[in-house]
Structures are given as C-alpha cells and as structure tokens.
Predict the structure.
Amino acid sequence: MAIKELQVDALVIGGGIAGMQSALDLADQGFHVALVEKEASIGGKMIALSKVFPTLDCCSCITTPKMSAVAHHENIDLLTYCEVQNVCQNGGGFKAQVIKKPRYVDEDKCTGCRQCEYACPIDIPSEFDLGLGAHRAIRVPFSTAVPQKVVLDIENCILCGKCEKACPHSCIDFTQTAQEFEIEAQAIVLATGFNLTPTDAKEEYGSGSIPNVVSPLVVERLLAPTGPYGHVLRPSDGKEPDSIAYVQCAGSRDKTLGVEYCSRICCMYAIKQAMLLSGALPLADITIYYMDIRTFGKGYEQFYQNARAMGIEFVKGKVAKISEDQADGEPSGHNPVVRVELIDDGSRIVERQHALVVLSTGMVPAYNPQELYGVPIAADDGFIKLSSPNLSPSVTDRPGIFVTGTAAGPMDIVDSIVLAGAAAAETAAYLTSNQKPVTSKPYSVNSKLVTEY
C-alpha cells in the first residue's frame, strides 16, 4: 500500500480540550499543525460532560465552538479516526507513521444527513452514553460531533445494504481498508488525556456487580442536555432516585489500587453534580461521604459553601463497604447500602441505604508514551515526567516533544486550557529557534492525502 506524506510544523496527539487549544494557539501564530485523534470525532471527554465548575457553564457551549474552529482553521489538518503507529527521529524533527481506520464511508461525499442511520435496523449500546442508550450500527458519533461524518461499526453490521440504498450520495463503501501515511513534523505535542479508575476495581464496593453503583461519567451523561433519557434515572429500573450518595476518594489516595495521589478534581465534580442533581431532583436527599474536601482553585471554596447552603449533606467518614439491601437473604430493591465510619460522631459505624451511589473515581493516565515517543513517565503516578514542572510545565525530557493537559498529571479544565497555551508557547519558541514555519498551503487529509481506500 502506498504511503502518502504530510509535512507540518507541529503534530498534536489528542483531540480533547487541551489538544484543540494547543493546535489553535499554534495555528493562530501561523504554524502548520496536524491534529491526530483516535476517535471518530474530536472533543475528548469534555464534550460528554454536563456543566463546568464553578461557573456551571454548559460544556457543549464551550467545547463545540473550539471543535468547529479546529475543523475550519486553514492551518490545521484534522485527522480523526487515526492512530500513530510509530515515531522516529528525522533529522532535527520527527517522522510519524499513522494509520487511518476505515469508516466504510466516503468522507468527501458524506454530508452527515443521517439517512443511512435512519435506515439501519441494528441497535447497539452507545459508547458515548456509556451504554445507557443505544445507537445504530452506522451513525454520526454524537449530535455535536466534528466532523459530522458517519462511521460504520463493521463488527455489528449484518451487511443488509439498507444504509447503502438510503444514502443519497452513494457514500457507503463496504470494501474500505485502513490507510497508512506519514507525517513529518518538527515538534510534537502530547495531549493524550486521562482515564478514570474503574468502578469495579474494589471488591469492597461491589466489584461492579451492583447496578446502582455508578461512575461520575454516567451521572454526567444523565445530567447533560444531550443525555440518553433527558432526565436522571437510575440504571437498574429506570426510577428516579430519591436518595443519592457520593463516595469520595473511591479511586484516589488508595494504596491498594496503586493510586496514592489525590486526583484534585474529584471533590469539585462531586459538589458540582450534587448541586445539579438538587435542581433536577428537588426532593432527593444528597449526601457526600468524604475524607477531606479539597477546593484548590479560584472560587472553589465558595462553590463548596454554596453547596452546603443548598442542603447537601457532607459527612466526614471513610466508606468501608457497599452492598445491596437484603430481604430474607435475597437482593431486594437493588438499593446500595453504605457502611461508613462517622469521624465527627465518635467514629461510630453505621449503615445507610441509598437509591443511587456514585463513586468519585480518580484520574489515571490514558496512555503510556514512553515506548513510542521516548519520553519518560513519573515513577509515582505514571503521568509524563516533566523536566521542570514549576518553570516549564509542558517541557519533557526529550527535545521537541511537549505535553499538555491531563497527560502531564491530574488537573481540571481551566488548568488544562492554561497548560495548553503554555505548551503552544513552548512549541512555538522551539520551532522559531530551529526552523522556519511550513509555508505551503494546508490541505484536507480526506481530499488529498487519503484519496482512495
């Protein structure tokens, strides 16, 4: 298979909020940027959230304009559904070998009309909604996806041909295969993001077997305006929960999970969700079980005090176990029962029943770049090691490779955007001191780089 080539000033790996901001900042300075995202749309985890703390602004309202700006910027080549396979030194720069996964759709012709999606008879669990909802085997990834191009899940496709017949532009191509190409860049920005510690990691919390013990991202989708139900319903039976509990430090500050550090954001997103749940379910009782409340940013302490004033109950205590309610030895209403030590009440141990329990899981690295990019990771947390985190928080130990966002460590959205600007500034300074910007007019990967599958 022939390998095409793309020459740019900077290669940004990851299309979340930090990667998009770094790409935009570099592109606005006149540098030619390629943004590689492994998913079918940019936006990262932020596009799936409900609102941001402490302002409670709409996440989609913040993220969607940036996604659109990236897609339409003349100095940015947006490469979605692509993964970097290999990176090697190329003189003073780098050469990355990238594979573009097949969408089984001609992206140049596709207008995102969704006629193929409406015609498809196969429903599968929605990854974007974390399995709460369903989508068709061929679909636009989500309503605000960028680019608005459909992608076919060939593993679940029955090859009935209904999508092909419904498409008004003859976009469907079941014979597409993966396409390889190379990118030459003078600098690389790693914005590979984070994952949450799994909810099934601790046996004491049910090992994922209790249906109404959920992750915070599930609650984000329930609260989001683009959510699957348009209302907050618990997963086991679709009922409105009348009692909701948050268990803090359920995936951080825990030596048994190998995550001994504080993830910084868990207290704040729990408080934010509790306030939003108070508005969505005014009659629900909401409790937050915590060891320490860490409100580290501007306005965060006041945000916490506002939550207390709203009637949200904060209980200082460590949750030892979560089980289901029992009736004659058999599970009853799938209501989680929390066993907790009340620190402020003489270390008294009690059991409390709730309709829904949310585990405030922590941040872990989404990707280990050490082998592919040659940048070391920190021994204590697995995030990318920084040469001088206080003076140069985006500079790695390998010249020409920079880091931004939660690839560098746990942080909130505000800090991710700030660090993205710092990474762009460091990258621009590096490019300016080493070479002149690429002056050739950028072009679309869909129309010129990847011409045929």
In short: The first strand starts at residue 4 and ends at 13. Confidence is low (pLDDT under 50) at residues 439-453.
